[in-house]
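Weekly modeling sync, notes
Attendees: S.R. (lead), two postdocs, one rotation student

Agenda item 3: backlog of single-chain predictions. S.R. asked that every request posted to the team notebook include the full sequence so nobody has to chase files. The rotation student volunteered to paste the first one in as an example of the format we agreed on. Action items at the bottom.

Example entry:
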Amino acid sequence: MESRRTLVAALTVAAVALIVAGIAAVAIDSGPSGGSAPTGPVTASPSGSVASATPSPTAPPVTPSGLPGSSPSNFTPVPTMSASPGPHNPGFAVRGGSIVYYTSDGTVVPVEPVPGLRATIAGDQVTYSALAGNRYGLRAGAYAGEFMPNVSIQQDNGSSAQTGGVVVVGSVAVRLISDALAAITSPADRWIVALPVDIRGTTKPVDVSFDSYGLVGLTYTPRVLVQFSDSLPVVNVIPDNSGYHVLVEQLGVTLWQVIDPTRLGLSSATLDPDHLMNELLLYGNGTPSVSRDVVVNRRVEIGHPMLFAAGEVSVSLTVRGSYADLSPSRVLKIADVPVFVASS
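Predicted structure, as returned to the notebook:
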């Protein structure tokens, strides 16, 4: 009997010991905060918090749909849109399927499409290239010009608007001029001004305006005035020309003039309705690149460079004692964007 009591007591002591050991083990495994204890070296983060070197458990992998376990086969990627240029961040961008230019103050200048040409953004430029089957005689993909966003033109109401300018190569200019002349029914009105300055060489503002200038005796002659910085090429814009004469000596009111020699055989008193384009006069008061007269008595292509001029170039339709009115409608345009001719 005594031995049984001794055995029970021993078993009781052993059971108590096992219970105590179990409680201690649970306390150690839980850690002092009741979570998992660090199992590796512990370092302090820059913020001063303590982080374990052992990675914490990660969330279930997320498939492209954004939902755990969903099938990526039905995922349609959403295009990533770059931030559009805006105030203080000017540049070209695509908006609503069309190319536009954002000015530094957020003004939007649409890039005007030209029939038969493709407009493409390349860095900070928009260039035009020929489409297959174009009506300009250009091979597909050939360079055809550029869109210059730095152009403002005076409107019919006297205000000025930044429209940009289209600069096209000679073959495109020829066709655009021809189309514009064909749409004019009155012989006395059959003339148009493609702006004779290649403005691709400047990123500074280019202003196109209309006023009068004292070229015909005491009568002030209407003109379109292109003002710019730098020295830029002045090019031929008369399709049916017989060459050109650059006059730079003893001109009085201008520093230089360019005439079509066809004009020398016409009346010196009145405009000839059969040769109105030949009677366009180009002139300026900025320093020209030539110091003596230049005489070319053979036909040249549109876009042929005749001189470089600084500051301004004007165009009038005038002979001694007679002139034609010149308004914004007389400038060759694509929609409301003026057309300049590239030098070639």
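Discussion: group reviewed the output briefly. Residues 1-83 have pLDDT under 50 and may be disordered.
Action items: rotation student to repeat for the remaining queue; S.R. to check formatting next week.
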